[in-house]
Amino acid sequence: MSTEEKSLHFIEQIIEDSISNGFPKESLRFRFPPEPNGYLHIGHAKSICLNFGLGLKYNAPVNLRFDDTNPAKEEQEYVDAIKEDLQWLGFNWAEERYASDYFQQLYDWAVMMIKKGKAYVDSQSSEEMASQKGTPTQPGVDGPYRNRSVEENLTLFEGMKNGDFPEGSHVLRAKIDMASTNMLMRDPLMYRVLHRHHHRTGNDWKIYPMYDYAHGESDFIEQISHSICTLEFVMHRELYNWFLDQIYDDTKVRPNQYEFARLNLNYTVMSKRKLLQLVQENIVNGWDDPRMPTISGLRRRGYTANSIRKFCEIIGVAKRENIIDYSLLEFCLREDLNKTAPRVMAVLDPIKLVITNYPEGQEEWLDAENNQEDESAGFRKVPFSKTLFIEREDFLEDAPAKFFRLSIGREVRLKNAYIIKGESVIKDDSGEILEIHATYDADSKSGSGSEASQRKVAGTLHWVSVAHALETEVRLYDRLFLDQAPDSHKDKNFLDFMNPDSLQVVKGYVEPSLATVKAGDKFQFQRLGYFNVDKDSSVETIIFNKTVGLKDAWEEKGKKEENLLMNTQKDLNKYVKEKDETAAAALLIPIIENIKSVDNYSLLVQTVTKNIKNDNNALLFANLIVQYSDKVEINSFDADVVQKFYTMSLKSQLASVRVAAILNLKNDAQNFVLFEAVLAELKNVEKNEKVLALLN
């Protein structure tokens, strides 16, 4: 195998094999087939890059086909948004097609199938059809209308088409095999009655084809050679082929379906239904809210098309489902923006810095590099004056040894300017610092080459001149969910994991070079992260969106919370060993506070689960998490885990474990009833006064 062949993903290998076996390369044709019932999200980007990437690789046409077969959920707005997203990502389609273009042909084929005894009109209710369809382990049974005559079926189907019947009264079903081991083959629906306005065909049709019927037949009409779907369509492939068998003409290309693993990204949801819920309930501000995983939301937040394409390239094309870390998407973005985004200075939490020995009324325009990663980016001028804004967190009046920013008696460099030394502060009556006073070394100007300018100091701060600063609105966006898999937990609604700090709006100040920015412009705010200009900006107010930080704050937070729980469990050992009750109570307070501070639901669930074992301290830790964390509840766990949790805890030799378990049971009415007999038995043998007091 050549080096090139080794680098091929499995779909490329399938195509190469097809060509090797005589399939004409000029007959290759692909398609991207979105349903226009919502905006595209990052998961669709993987499919887009795959299909259009194959088109580019093999110089083959790629159709954009809207599978618009459900007018109840589809709108022209979605069609327009999808086209805009594709063009922004950098892809051009060969032909713009719609499944609705083929409604007459699909109807004619359905009539042909009725005449051949391959389809029939069923007049059962949906509940009756579901009942007669059987289960995965039990075959279905023939419905009462399965053997209607061809003439009756044709009459009813034409009546459905003409709008003679209400919605839900009749459906057209394929006549396949009610005993098939594949439940999708048990006489699947082909058409349903819908008295709905279609965004393209208006009110011409009163019946609409089901996706499984229309999809493969549309591929055949367009002569798609390789129909690429995600893994949930594996079981649909048999049905895809059955429908093709009914119409296939061996003088034409027969489409073949292939499946790849969809993109699963942590800390988000990919369901269009759930994304629509976020929009409809005004939890976010529309489909293009910068917190949404939609392509339009990512674009508005400041993501680049190149970063998304790179992300899809890195994750590759696989046959097995896996979950991709959101941090990888952010990494691809940082890599791209680092090369292209101009550096500017902005202050988002300002405090005044007065340089007391700088001449009153004087100002300088200093040279500042636009992007050290791009030599051609050049320099700009930034104004410097006596009174500046710096970040509030960049100053501590009394700082520890490892604080490498400004404090009283310490020196730092102001970026592109001078070395300054903290001298004093002015405070209000409540002790809040209003101004920092410092002195500057006039010989230490950056780039001057003087001895003073080359002096090493602890840190470098960004700043803006108060007299020249532009006031802006800055929207600090963060991940929408606190949990890695918000829609995967039993007895939990995905909305339970919303991040309350996913959007914070602050007033910031930026340097005057940004006076003429326009929507979509991207910058690195030095030391703060990457930001872009939002479309809501106006001549009066510039609005910046935080795109991504310079570092992965979530990875740092995750590690901190993991380390916190590990260290807290170690502290618990000290608590258990402490004989003095007052001292033990004091040790317990920070343990409880640490547990309460952890936001990561999945981490807490995993920690509880792994601590349900024959170890007294581990069981105590698990009980304390259940008792004090407001993120997890006992119904967060499977029934067998809960059974083991209480059983082992109540049998523990450590009285404090039994106490904690009983307290948890008293807040858990359902399981309290199940363990009443165990508690009664414990009462008969218990000797610890605290446990007995709870049992009584």
TrEMBL record:
<dbReference type="Pfam" id="PF00749">
    <property type="entry name" value="tRNA-synt_1c"/>
</dbReference>
<dbReference type="Pfam" id="PF20974">
    <property type="entry name" value="tRNA-synt_1c_C2"/>
</dbReference>
<dbReference type="InterPro" id="IPR020056">
    <property type="entry name" value="Rbsml_bL25/Gln-tRNA_synth_N"/>
</dbReference>
<feature type="short sequence motif" description="'KMSKS' region">
    <location>
        <begin position="269"/>
        <end position="273"/>
    </location>
</feature>
<keyword id="KW-0963">Cytoplasm</keyword>
<feature type="binding site">
    <location>
        <position position="211"/>
    </location>
    <ligand>
        <name>L-glutamine</name>
    </ligand>
</feature>
<dbReference type="InterPro" id="IPR000924">
    <property type="entry name" value="Glu/Gln-tRNA-synth"/>
</dbReference>
<keyword id="KW-0648">Protein biosynthesis</keyword>
<feature type="binding site">
    <location>
        <begin position="262"/>
        <end position="263"/>
    </location>
    <ligand>
        <name>ATP</name>
    </ligand>
</feature>
<keyword id="KW-0436">Ligase</keyword>
<feature type="binding site">
    <location>
        <begin position="270"/>
        <end position="272"/>
    </location>
    <ligand>
        <name>ATP</name>
    </ligand>
</feature>
<comment type="similarity">
    <text>Belongs to the class-I aminoacyl-tRNA synthetase family.</text>
</comment>
<dbReference type="InterPro" id="IPR011035">
    <property type="entry name" value="Ribosomal_bL25/Gln-tRNA_synth"/>
</dbReference>
<keyword id="KW-0547">Nucleotide-binding</keyword>
<protein>
    <recommendedName>
        <fullName>Glutamine--tRNA ligase</fullName>
        <ecNumber>6.1.1.18</ecNumber>
    </recommendedName>
</protein>
<feature type="binding site">
    <location>
        <position position="230"/>
    </location>
    <ligand>
        <name>ATP</name>
    </ligand>
</feature>
<dbReference type="InterPro" id="IPR022861">
    <property type="entry name" value="Gln_tRNA_ligase_bac"/>
</dbReference>
<feature type="domain" description="Glutamyl/glutaminyl-tRNA synthetase class Ib anti-codon binding">
    <location>
        <begin position="341"/>
        <end position="441"/>
    </location>
</feature>
<dbReference type="InterPro" id="IPR050132">
    <property type="entry name" value="Gln/Glu-tRNA_Ligase"/>
</dbReference>
<feature type="binding site">
    <location>
        <position position="67"/>
    </location>
    <ligand>
        <name>L-glutamine</name>
    </ligand>
</feature>
<keyword id="KW-0030">Aminoacyl-tRNA synthetase</keyword>
<comment type="subunit">
    <text>Monomer.</text>
</comment>
<feature type="binding site">
    <location>
        <begin position="41"/>
        <end position="47"/>
    </location>
    <ligand>
        <name>ATP</name>
    </ligand>
</feature>
<dbReference type="InterPro" id="IPR049437">
    <property type="entry name" value="tRNA-synt_1c_C2"/>
</dbReference>
<feature type="domain" description="tRNA synthetases class I (E and Q) anti-codon binding">
    <location>
        <begin position="460"/>
        <end position="534"/>
    </location>
</feature>
<feature type="short sequence motif" description="'HIGH' region">
    <location>
        <begin position="34"/>
        <end position="44"/>
    </location>
</feature>
<feature type="binding site">
    <location>
        <begin position="35"/>
        <end position="37"/>
    </location>
    <ligand>
        <name>ATP</name>
    </ligand>
</feature>
<feature type="compositionally biased region" description="Polar residues">
    <location>
        <begin position="125"/>
        <end position="138"/>
    </location>
</feature>
<dbReference type="InterPro" id="IPR014729">
    <property type="entry name" value="Rossmann-like_a/b/a_fold"/>
</dbReference>
<dbReference type="GO" id="GO:0016874">
    <property type="term" value="F:ligase activity"/>
</dbReference>
<feature type="domain" description="Glutamyl/glutaminyl-tRNA synthetase class Ib catalytic">
    <location>
        <begin position="28"/>
        <end position="338"/>
    </location>
</feature>
<feature type="region of interest" description="Disordered">
    <location>
        <begin position="125"/>
        <end position="146"/>
    </location>
</feature>
<dbReference type="InterPro" id="IPR020058">
    <property type="entry name" value="Glu/Gln-tRNA-synth_Ib_cat-dom"/>
</dbReference>
<dbReference type="InterPro" id="IPR020059">
    <property type="entry name" value="Glu/Gln-tRNA-synth_Ib_codon-bd"/>
</dbReference>
<dbReference type="InterPro" id="IPR004514">
    <property type="entry name" value="Gln-tRNA-synth"/>
</dbReference>
<dbReference type="InterPro" id="IPR001412">
    <property type="entry name" value="aa-tRNA-synth_I_CS"/>
</dbReference>
<keyword id="KW-0067">ATP-binding</keyword>
<dbReference type="Pfam" id="PF03950">
    <property type="entry name" value="tRNA-synt_1c_C"/>
</dbReference>
